[in-house]
Design goal:
heterotrimer; A mainly alpha; B alpha/beta; C alpha+beta; A: mainly alpha; two-stranded antiparallel sheet; 3 strands; 9% strand; flat; C: alpha+beta; 8-stranded mixed sheet; 3-stranded antiparallel sheet; 39% helix
Chain lengths: 95, 483, 488
């Protein structure tokens, strides 16, 4: 399936990956080649097969509703590239 | 160089012929001498020696010791280690110091095994050559121009080079088995859910599996027994009693039916590799195993299904790396959008970015059904193939990889060629089965060949026993690369 | 310009409204981590490693949250799914640490149900609820505390929510608000959500469109995160007007997310949201399907309290209460339970009990600004007071004074009656003495009465009451007084 540059820009935008304009065509043809690999899926006869999302037929284990974790804000905020007054900081967000 | 097994080292430790500190020092020295392999992202001499001293003190105090107590080893840098930088092979996590230990890390520490450092890997476990590491490619000890395989390439190289008797690894599409094959060692990928993923940095959650790379099947069993078991912190962890596989390694092979899958000897498989694989299978046959030709008709769809599903999950799993709470943050972002897109573009390498884009595409509106959903149906088809085959055989066999270790740079410019190297391994992950790669001799180029054995879910004991029986009568796994 | 709320025969426009209500489930820990959910903690002190989406961390689901979702499903007559699936909703936002929200998409835990909603004018509508699903809340962005930056607090991240999605079946802001109130009553009644709207425990997104009657659905806009009944009403009304005005001016409605500005009573487009979101939902590979066994569902069914609609109906049918009383008593379960606890001590006196609960009790609660659970006069205490009233030991008027004293902490009804000497004089002899004294005091009026001015009866009653400081039993007083006045 041919992939156009606008689609690459859209996908990169969805994935929040900056792509320089001069890299766009290289990336486009690269992705197109990978997507071509997937044409193989269309050849498989899967009409009567349910999708398999988890390898085993497992059902979800549930935990009791108890508070098991306390304040770790010092450790967590220490990991942050930018933090102040107990908050993680990001450039101003306008809603 | 040391090819001593865990059991031999444990015996030496028990009688005081050596100490944990001595073993740790020897490992650290070998690691230092073999720096050219670039098999480690980080060595932690101080922590290792401190842990070793504790083990020696415990032993001196007469405490009961685990077979792994005092045994040096290394963790793939994908496992979170409390207070120790964990990079996952990525620039994104260059300075990330986890505030907690992964389950695998906890379990091995509890046994008294002594971690000397963190091994090199393809970034976020995406790769089959270790060339996608932000910290440089690791080198195959069997040839300085050869890749060690990936993504657990550093772990495989470190074990093959005799730096450590075992190392942890993870396998999402072959990342334990293929490097084990390329480096001439034994690599166990357990059943999905047998080892908790807690603290293991995610690539593709429904495929990721922690396991072990070691010299022999026996050693793999010892380590596997220590890291397996139900963990309530991982909702996909399997809640069923784990038999001690180490106790099951004496079973004769008489009557064992091994299905030789025709598809695993397909077009891309080098004749030499096929020949070595058949030769190894004949060794099993001579011990009473029965070889049965089988087919896995959907095997050829596995690569496509895998390279849709794994990137799709990865695109979501790696969304958390946004430069806000930890990890790389771009210095010149003026807005939130720039913070995201630049931090991620700077922090992730090209293969990771490629898979994020492919995965995003496969999940996006208009393509979900044709790609992601269809791939999940093909996944069922592939799992059913195995179920069908295991109706008549006990194990399935084939070459782990179609070739021996390829040259550095040989495929790094061609994603599709690299992906094709996973042709015999990815189906196992799609089905969640246990599999092992065991040394099967050497090809004409002098490089190791690996035999892959695949078992039904939860039959690790059968798998390890067959591998062990092969290693009882062969010495391929004991060969050492020239220093 | 005509509006959707016109009641004329042919309204030019019809509004179509659907609500997505987010009810925070009242668990003590989060949906997928063991961090606390308490409100108002210092920033990020209730954010666990999982909530911060540290590499390698994994979600583990909270049983209690699932149980509460099942209860809601049963309460609206919906099917509780034997298998439901947690899915990832992928988008980037700084208060969403994983870059995806764990929600439910194709297979929600609660399927289709309905809720009967009584409008203010007494009409009933049946609102179809398409689904309800479990999902985790996001964190909080703090925009005004820093100069050029936004602060992120992840305390709320991972808090369990039940998202209750109505069909687009409401046609006015009033209907939407009545529906929202009914859901609010129900979730509090079930004890699955505290309903605290100031703290954001109950909030809603409003999907609004307008169309010509009978035409296909118009383009809708979504007003995000409105957290009061009044704002929901104002926001929807504004949005309906805005859309009608735009359409009548020949403009198209843009499908977008809007924010309600409570100071201007307007909605405006949200800048931070992309108009064409592509959330790339897929089953969360970290979480196998949620299986709920029939036995689990049945167990929850047996734990279910009598629901508000059923109880309201019973109050009307069996207790003979007026509908308005029944409505008010069933506005929340604590009030209804209080009423029933009082009634249990006074069989057959439903109206008396209702009058007191909705009268004195409600007024005092209102004045004190507290909930009925915290009332200083508990149900048994009120029952004692009303029993004394019924026994004729005190009058209705005195009872109110006694109630006030009880509310002020002066003890139970008997203690107050004793301490203040409020027992009614029912003794005929004592009453006769008091009456004789009054008649002797007012001979002129007595003569007038006996000459036919019977209106003076009330004058004498008042005088006797004054002399007895209100403690005369009115019925007996009347009887004895009439006899004395008649001179017999």
């Amino acid at each position: 399936m041919p992939l156009d540059p606008a689609a690459v820009r859209h996908i990169a935008r969805l994935a929040r990956l900056a792509v320089a304009e001069d890299r766009l065509e290289g990336l486009r043809s690269d992705l197109e080649r990978v997507l071509h690999l997937f044409d193989d899926l269309a050849a498989a006869n899967v009409d009567n097969f349910a999708p398999l999302a988890h390898p085993h037929d497992q059902s979800l284990g549930l935990r009791d509703d108890v508070v098991g974790e306390g304040d770790r804000s010092d450790e967590l905020l220490a990991l942050a590239p930018s933090a102040q007054g107990g908050y993680f900081l990001v450039p101003k967000v306008i809603e | 160089m040391s090819t001593a097994s865990i059991a031999a080292l444990a015996a030496d430790l028990a009688v005081g012929r050596t100490s944990a500190v001595q073993l740790a020092e020897q490992s650290l020295q070998r690691a230092d001498a073999q720096r050219a392999l670039n098999s480690f992202i980080r060595l932690d001499a101080d922590a290792a020696l401190a842990a070793a001293r504790t083990v020696d003190a415990d032993r001196a105090a007469g405490r009961e010791m685990h077979p792994l107590a005092g045994i040096p080893f290394a963790h793939k840098d994908i496992f979170c280690t409390k207070g120790i930088t964990t990079t996952c092979g990525s620039r994104m996590l260059q300075h990330f110091v986890p505030p907690y230990d992964a389950l695998v890390v906890e379990r091995l520490a509890r046994a008294g095994a002594v971690s000397i450092g963190k091994t090199n890997m393809d970034e976020f476990a995406m790769g089959s050559s270790n060339e996608n590491s932000a910290y440089g490619a690791a080198i195959n000890p069997w040839g300085s121009a050869r890749v060690p395989g990936g993504s657990s390439g550093g772990s495989a190289a470190a074990v093959a080079a005799g730096i450590v008797p075992f190392a942890t690894g993870t396998d999402t599409g072959g990342s334990i088995r293929q490097p084990a094959a390329f480096c001439g060692i034994t690599g166990l990928k357990p059943t999905y859910g047998r080892v908790s993923r807690y603290g293991m940095i995610a690539y593709a959650s429904s495929l990721d599996c922690a396991g072990v790379l070691a010299r022999s099947a026996t050693d793999c069993a010892t380590v596997f027994d220590q890291i397996t078991g139900f963990d309530p912190r991982d909702s996909t962890s399997v809640d069923r009693p784990a038999d001690r596989t180490a106790d099951a390694l004496g079973q004769p092979l008489a009557g064992l039916r091994i299905g030789v899958a025709r598809e695993y000897f397909g077009g891309g498989v080098h004749d030499d590799v096929a020949a070595r694989t058949h030769a190894a299978l004949r060794e099993l046959e001579m011990q009473g195993a029965q070889l049965v030709d089988i087919t896995l008709p959907s095997a050829h769809h596995a690569i496509a299904a895998y390279y849709v599903i794994a990137p799709a999950e990865a695109s979501s799993n790696l969304a958390r790396y946004d430069g806000v709470r930890y990890g790389h943050r771009s210095m010149d972002a003026r807005s939130l959008d720039e913070l995201y897109s630049r931090s991620r573009a700077e922090g992730f390498g090209s293969e990771v970015q490629r898979r994020i884009l492919v995965g995003t595409y496969a999940l996006s509106a208009g393509y979900y059904d044709a790609y992601y959903l269809r791939a999940q149906k093909v996944r069922r088809l592939i799992a059913n193939d195995f179920l069908g085959a295991f109706g008549s055989v006990d194990l399935i066999a084939g070459p782990t990889a179609p070739t021996t270790a390829f040259r550095l740079g040989e495929k790094s410019g061609d994603a599709l060629a690299m992906y094709a190297a996973d042709v015999n391994t990815v189906a196992v992950n799609l089905a969640g089965l246990p599999a092992i790669s065991v040394p099967a001799g050497f090809a004409a180029d002098g490089l190791p060949v690996g035999l892959q054995l695949i078992a039904p879910a939860f039959a690790e004991a059968r798998l390890l026993n067959a591998a062990h029986q092969l290693q009882r009568v062969t010495d391929w796994h004991l060969q050492e690369p020239a220093a | 310009m005509s509006t959707a709320s016109d009641v004329s025969a042919e309204p030019a426009w019809q509004a179509v409204i659907g609500l997505e209500i987010h009810a925070q489930l009242s668990t003590v820990s989060k949906l997928f981590s063991g961090a606390a959910t308490a409100y108002g903690a210092e920033p990020n002190t209730q954010a666990s490693l999982v909530d911060c989406a540290l590499p390698g961390t994994l979600p583990v689901a909270n049983r209690e949250a699932v149980r509460k979702a099942i209860q809601f499903g049963l309460a609206i007559g919906a099917t509780v799914a034997p298998h439901s699936v947690f899915a990832r909703k992928n988008y980037f936002y700084p208060d969403l640490p994983k870059g995806y929200q764990i929600s439910q998409y194709e297979l929600p835990v609660v399927g289709r149900g309905t809720l009967a909603v009584r409008l203010d004018d007494g009409r009933m509508i049946h609102v179809e609820i398409e689904r309800a699903h479990l999902e985790e809340d996001a964190g909080k962005s703090v925009h005004d505390a820093f100069h050029a930056e936004t602060g992120i607090d992840l305390n709320r991240a991972g808090t369990p929510l039940l998202e209750i999605v109505s069909a687009p079946v409401m046609n006015s802001a009033a209907e939407a608000v009545a529906y929202m109130r009914t859901v609010h009553t129900l979730v509090r009644w079930l004890g699955i959500c505290d309903g605290n709207m100031q703290e954001g425990s109950f909030r809603c997104d409003c999907n609004v469109s307008v169309r010509r009657p009978g035409a296909a659905l118009g383009t809708r806009t979504e007003i995000k995160n409105v957290n009061s009944f009044r704002f929901v009403e104002k926001a929807i009304d504004y949005e309906i007007e805005r859309q009608i005005r735009a359409l009548e001016n020949g403009e198209a409605i843009v499908q977008e997310t809007r924010l309600y500005d409570p100071t201007r009573h307007q909605t405006r487009p949200m800048r931070s949201k992309e108009s064409a979101d592509d959330y790339r939902y897929f089953p969360d590979p970290d979480l196998p399907p949620l299986s709920i066994a029939p036995a689990d569902i049945e167990r929850e069914r047996t734990r279910l309290p009598e629901l508000p609609q059923a109880r309201r109906q019973r109050y009307v049918d069996e207790l003979g209460l007026p509908e308005a009383d029944a409505d008010q008593l069933c506005a929340d379960r604590a009030t209804a339970d209080y009423f029933e606890a009082v009634l249990a001590e006074l069989p057959g006196q439903a109206k008396l009990c209702a009058n007191w609960v909705l009268g004195e009790v409600a007024a005092n609660l209102n004045e004190a600004g507290i909930e009925i659970d915290a009332a200083p006069v508990a149900a048994p205490a009120l029952a004692q007071l009303l029993t004394r009233l019924r026994e004729g030991i005190i009058s209705g008027k005195i009872a109110k004074d006694v109630f006030a004293a009880m509310w002020a902490g002066e003890g139970d009804a008997d203690a107050v009656i004793d301490a203040r000497g409020l027992k009614q004089i029912s003794d005929v002899g004592a009453l006769a003495t008091a009456i004789d004294l009054v008649l002797a005091e007012y001979p002129g009026q007595l003569a007038d009465y006996r000459n036919g001015n019977e209106k003076l009866l009330q004058f004498f009653v008042g005088q006797v009451m004054k002399r007895t400081r209100g403690q005369a039993n009115p019925q007996q007083l009347n009887e004895v007084l009439r006899q004395k006045l008649a001179g017999t």
